[in-house]
Amino acid sequence: MTTNCIKFTSDDIETAKGVGSISTLTFDLDITVEPVASSNPMAPTHRVLGRSPRGKLVECGGIWKKQNKDTGSDYFTLTVRDHAFNANLGKAASQDDMSLQAIIPWGPKEAA
Q1: Which pLDDT score, from 0 to 100, does residue 112 have?
Q2: For residue range 60-77, what is the model confidence (pLDDT) as tens digits?
């Protein structure tokens, strides 16, 4: 599998499980994502799980569904807490498969 992507089990990302990997210059992490059932609109749609140094599966972040304020279209964001990593999910380059989502990193905005 290509790095910095998540392969979901279906195109309905909000309810699908997935596996993927995130690679940067400072960390390399295989991840599993599991949907979260919640009536709280602020809750994540998924838990992000990684492996501890001893191989245990541990929760390390989440995926949230957001709405673009200008267009009203929905999108997903991902965070990995221990690495202060933030990203958007989007269609992978040269792919028509919506179940394959690219992890597109972004950093915190600089203070004005």
Answers
A1: 47
A2: 999 999 999 999 999 999
pLDDT tier, 41 (very low <50, low <70, confident <90, very high otherwise): confident
Determine, yes or no, domain membership for 54. yes
Q: Which domain holds residue 71?
A: 5-106
* 48 within domain boundaries: yes
106 C-beta neighbours (distance < 10 Å), count: 10
pTM: 0.88
| Residue 38, number of CB atoms within 10 A of its CB | 10
Tell me which amino acid residue 44 is: P
Number of structural domains in the chain: 1
Beta strands in the chain (DSSP E): 5-8, 18-23, 28-35, 46-51, 57-67, 74-80, 85-91, 100-106
Establish if 90 belongs to a structural domain. Answer: yes
